[in-house]
């Protein structure tokens, strides 16, 4: 399927049994959806399970899809609902993985300075830890905005919360993160 098609066009083609359209959608969104789950539950096996559940839900819902909103909003709404279900069943506080990134992911270059890399890794670790202390609702809004790039209106639609509450959750999340990160300095 041509990569120039919109997600909405691809989903409608998939609903008409075009498997190449699904492949393109999956390639476009698999990383973001997986990271959404991983950042929320901090467990690779759980993130994989939730990730697979959402794509299975998409497959089973393909005939009912209507392009009334952006495809990505619809997809993340499915992901949000699956996460809420998981959260209710587990009755545990969601957290972010605080392990350091693999230093091999950023190979040394001629201008590479180990002390800068160490500082970056320390900041990444501090940010992940700070995010893990946010209440789940604030963490979700923050990650959907900062990592997935959704607008406040789209996040409100995904989480089924009004826009003012969504703005407040985001604002409080940023305030708490700033305060926690300032304390680290």
Shape: elongated
Total helical segments: 8
Helix and strand content put the structural class at mainly alpha
Task: Name the CATH class of the largest domain.
Answer: Mainly Alpha
Number of domains: 2
The helix-strand sequence is HHHHHHHH
Give the fraction of residues assigned to helices: over 70%
Number of E-type strands:
0
- Would you tell me the overall average pLDDT? 81
Question: Kindly, what is the distance between the CA atoms of the first and last residues, rounded to a whole number of angstroms?
Answer: 49 Å
Low-confidence stretches: 92-109
CATH superfamily of the largest domain: RNA polymerase sigma factor, region 2, helix turn helix motif
CATH topology of the largest domain: the name is Rna Polymerase Sigma Factor, Chain: A
Kindly estimate the percentage of residues that lie in beta strands according to DSSP: under 5%
């Amino acid at each position: 399927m041509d990569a120039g098609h919109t997600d909405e066009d691809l989903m409608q083609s998939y609903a008409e049994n075009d498997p190449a359209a699904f492949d393109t959608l999956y390639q476009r969104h698999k990383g973001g959806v997986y990271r959404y789950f991983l950042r929320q539950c901090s467990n690779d096996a759980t993130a994989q399970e939730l990730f697979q559940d959402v794509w299975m839900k998409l497959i089973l819902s393909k005939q009912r899809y209507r392009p009334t909103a952006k495809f990505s909003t619809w997809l993340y709404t499915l992901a949000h609902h699956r996460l809420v279900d998981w959260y209710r069943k587990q009755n545990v506080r969601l957290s972010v993985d605080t392990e350091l990134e693999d230093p091999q992911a950023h190979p040394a270059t001629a201008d590479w300075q180990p002390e800068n890399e160490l500082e970056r890794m320390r900041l990444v670790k501090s940010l992940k830890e700070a995010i893990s202390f946010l209440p789940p609702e604030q963490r979700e809004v923050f990650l959907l905005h900062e990592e997935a790039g959704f607008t406040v209106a789209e996040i409100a639609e995904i989480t089924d919360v009004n826009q003012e509450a969504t703005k407040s959750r985001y604002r409080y999340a940023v305030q708490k993160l700033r305060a926690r990160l300032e304390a680290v300095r």
